[in-house]
Amino acid sequence: MNLILFGPPGAGKGTQAKMLIDKFDLVQISTGDMLRDEVNSQSELGKSAKSIMDRGDLVSDDIIMAMIEKRIQMTDCNNGFILDGFPRTLKQAVELDQLLDNFKINIKNVIEIVVDENLLLERINKRSTENKNIRNDDNSVILKNRIKVYKKDTMPVIEYYRNLNKLNAIDGMQSIEKVFQEILKIL
Ligand code: ADP
Asked: Fewer beta carbons within 10 Å, N or C terminal of the chain?
């Protein structure tokens, strides 16, 4: 079972992804995590991505597509994967469809966790005061940019899936357990 999970920064995407992974024995493919690994290992890719990520802007589509193409061919994906944080631009979505076609891989559901913008800001502010291992891009100025980028670049991707009748939107302002139950209903 392969899924795509959408949600703005702070929507609880990561939490839901982890719960789905445990329940269905899936792997999570988070382009954000993959990029942070590259940054931590100080690879060439990581070095060029770091400043972009610290601003909350998007890394180039070509870099992301190359990473994804490699990742979805790995054998641990055979039982199913959750795409988290990808595709984030229309170009990535269109190229993903070509990749999936080539590899004869099918996406079962596209799920959008919908959360009101004020609540997102509240959650992230809380996350950045509570967490000592705070991410460079988890502060309210950068967060606002990440939300802006999400609206500008990623909302069109959500529309793309809506037009293909593949989108399931879920109210993300309920409890973690309730959101999870709604996702299970869709699956
Ligand atoms: P968020 O918590 O905002 O969803 P992620 O952890 O998914 O953030 O991504 C962190 C950063 O990594 C993004 O702000 C962006 O710079 C970069 N990034 C992650 N995924 C992509 C992608 N698919 N395309 C372009 N840039 C990406």
From this structure: C
Handedness of CA 75, 81, 85, 91 (dihedral sign): positive
- CA of 76 from ligand 1 middle (Å) equals 22
Q: What are the average pLDDT values for consecutive 10-residue runs of the chain, which has 187 residues?
A: 92 92 96 96 96 95 96 96 97 97 95 89 76 70 88 95 95 95 96
Query: Going by DSSP bridges, is the β-strand pair 167-171/81-84 parallel, antiparallel, or unpaired?
Result: unpaired
Q: Model's pTM, two decimal places? A: 0.90
Per-residue pLDDT, 187: 94
The two three-digit tokens of residue 157, written as one number: 């991707």
Mutate to test the pocket of ligand 1, among 5, 35, 89, 92 (most ligand atoms within 8 A of CB): 35
SS (H, E, C) the chain: CCEEEECCCCCCHHHHHHHHHHHHCCEEEEHHHHHHHHHHCCCHHHHHHHHHHHHCCCCCHHHHHHHHHHHCCCHHHCCCEEEECCCCCHHHHHHHHHHHHHHCCCCCEEEEEECCHHHHHHHHHHHHHHCCCCCCCCCHHHHHHHHHHHHHHHHHHHHHHHHCCCEEEEECCCCHHHHHHHHHHHC
Res 62: pLDDT: 96
